[in-house]
Amino acid sequence: MQAEYINPFITSLANAFMTMLDCEVRRGLVSLKDGNSPDYEISGIIGLSGRAVGTVVLSLSKEVALKAASTLLMCETSEVDAEVIDAVGELTNMVAGAAKSELEEYELAVSLPNVVTGRHHEIRFPSNVTPICVPFETDWGDLSLEVGFAPARVPVST
User: Fold this and answer.
1) pLDDT (tens digit, 9 = 90+) per residue, 98-144?
2) Which pTM does this prediction carry?
3) What is the CATH architecture of 3-149?
4) Which of 136, 147, 152, 157 could potentially form a cystine with 25 if both were Cys, beta carbons 3.0 to 4.6 Å apart?
5) In whole angstroms, what is the distance from residue 101 CA to residue 128 CA?
């Protein structure tokens, strides 16, 4: 995956957190993802398809997920329940959807978000993709963004 493909996702994450949550994110150092386990225990996952295929993962610490859900729902939540899961899915959808509009040349479609919880869960990216991981800090806690996609293989016509 080329590094410039990550910029629309970084921008859309920062915009979503500031606009929807009034929360500033501070980006850490971009790196290649090592291993299959996300950094945190709650992950929103969206597939990408079109002229490129891949996956977007928004991995949140429990503290960030709870605070984000509380802010979106306008009521305090203290446990990871169905509403928190839905809020994480919606945040992931916002990030992927806004980035998609910046990558029009790939004619991307985004899947419905899935949310996985629990320590040490694994997420598999397409075999031909090495995802890029971007850590972020907020006043609420930490999160990371993992993005891996590559141009789709086009069948050769005979």
Assistant:
1) 999 988 888 999 999 999 999 889 998 888 888 999 999 999 999 99
2) 0.91
3) 3-Layer(aba) Sandwich (3.40)
4) 136
5) 24
Contacts with 99 (C-beta within 8 Å, 6 or more apart), sequence order: 8, 9, 11, 12, 56
| Cα 148 to Cα 1: distance, rounded to the nearest angstrom | 6
- Interior angle at CA 98, CA 106 and CA 152, nearest 5: 20
- DSSP string for residues in the chain: --GGGTHHHHHHHHHHHHHHH----EE---EE--SSS-SSSEEEEEEEESSEEEEEEEEE-HHHHHHHHHHHHTS---S--HHHHHHHHHHHHHHHHHHHHH-GGG--EEPPPEEEESTT---PPPTT---EEEEEE-SS-EEEEEEEEEEPPPPPP-
- Here the tokens at position 64 are 């960030």
What is the rounded CA–CA span in Å between residue 111 and residue 123? 15
Angle 6-19-32 (CA atoms, 0-180°, nearest 5)?
20
Q: What is the CA radius of gyration of the chain?
A: 15
Q: How far apart are alpha carbons 128 and 136 in whole angstroms?
A: 26
